[in-house]
Amino acid sequence: MRKLLLAVLGLGAALAQQLSPQGILINPVPTDLQVKVWVDKDPGKRGTALYQVGEPIYIYVNVNQDAYVYLFNINADGKIDPILPNAYERDNFLRAGETRRFPPEGARYRYTVTGPEGEDRILAVASRRPLSLQEILDVERNQVRVEGTEGLARALSIVIEPIPARDWVTDVARYYVGRVTPTPPSTATLAVDSRPQGAEVYLDGRLQGRTPLSLGVNPGRHEVEVRLSGYQPYRVTVNPRPGERVQVFAQLVPEPRQGTLAVTSTPSGAEVYLNGALRGRTPLSLALPEGRYEVELRLSGYEPHRTRVEVRRGETTRLDVRLNPIRTGTLLLESSPSGAEVYLNGQLRGRTPLRLTLDEGTYRVELRLPGYEPYAASVRVERGRETRLAATLTPIRTGELSLEVRPQGAEVYVDGRLVGRGAVRLSLEAGLHEVRVAAPGYAEYRAQVEVRPGESLRLFVELVPVRAVLELYLNVEARVFLNGEEVGLARGGYLRLEVLPGDYELTLVAKGYRTLVQTVRLSGQQVLRLELRPL
Fold first, then answer.
1. Which has the higher per-residue pLDDT, 185 or 68?
2. What is the domain-level CATH number for residue 152?
3. How many Å apart are CA 241 and CA 138, to the nearest integer?
4. Fewer beta carbons under 10 A from the terminal one: N or C of the chain?
5. DSSP 3-state assignment of 360?
6. Are residues 79 and 208 located together in one domain of the fold?
7. What domain of life does the native source organism fall in (predicted)?
8. Are 111 and 54 contacting, i.e. CB atoms less than 8 angstroms apart?
9. How many angstroms separate the Cα of 227 from the Cα of each of 259, 296, 473?
10. Do 341 and 447 lie in a common domain?
11. CB 190, CB 246: distance < 8 Å
């Protein structure tokens, strides 16, 4: 078949010898990605469609998930031609459930069957990731750069190798060109190759030869295994139909370098953990890839033993451990609510919940949590056992009020009750309280304070002295003394004084007048009218 008008593509069957219902490359890993390819005369994919030379042909492809699709035609004469992508159809990304026809409606090219006569096949490769086909496909020239079915198979296997096995799948459509009467053959061909070559090929458990190898097999399901010393076995299931040639290419993976780890203990029967995974009980011998391993031995009544070992290729690493009897016990501390600080013999060790490994003995435990009463207990830790202490903490309903006052002899009242004089420290129920501080000659202090559970509230109160006002009215201008200290001059017979409340000795002195001395008690605002007598 050839593409006419603006481009030319040959459709033949060169890859026919290598295709199976699963594709030229068999994916040994099941995948939910599916691709289906068929021709217009055979939508049911029976493989019996016949095209005469000169007839047009249409190719259809469908995917069940978003995928990049690549189509190749394999001619009966061994020529391989690209269908998708090509110089006119570069978009090879199909959405889930999309069916696309080639050539599409209104295309500038068409496919016409030109021969040679024989069986042709169309290979579809679908991948969740775009494939790098630069070494295989020249899109501009519509040419495949590799020759023959074996070359295409190897090239595709290299391209697909980095793709995760679940991310690609293949399908094939068969049709006949010319006057060939499609008579289904009774056998199929299995071609097996490997990298490196020379590997033993087992078919259904029986040795058949070494790679590269071509076998005639009955149609149906077969188990293929490829083995080579120093490499991991490669296994795949094939299901060829009559006349098909299935290509199996095994990219063999080298076996990891291995050594032996032999573990014994006194006493025996200890559990052996390798990198955290239980592998058995002592005595134990393990074949392991070379490298470093974390080994732990556990036996009831004995302390765990941990160490690191190195296993070398072809060597036996021996680990003989004498286990030590347990002389410690476990103390599990819990509280409601959790998060309480844990003090063990006065030392902070963490917060609840907390598990501690301790020497056998008796310990003083204290739990502290803001807003709760401290919890204290004495516990006994026995070796080889776990002691559990669960404490329900009691919320604190009181707080502390610390009050310092000046003057020192001032009276302190809380909620109307005299609680002391000077500095006081009180334990009060949590909540609001009224504080009053009073002292003679000072302004009274009043305040409402909030005492919080488990907290200490500190207050410093300094009372403000109260001033007394004295207004003097005299019949002459005189000098004024209080307690012997001159405090002013009554000009025009008037003087206003502000002093602390209390008892004073008032002395008035004026030239040509008798000195006046009298005791006065001053508080608040007072007015005195006095008269001095001449000498």
1. 68
2. 2.60.40.2550
3. 32
4. C
5. coil
6. no
7. Bacteria
8. no
9. 21, 36, 132
10. no
11. yes
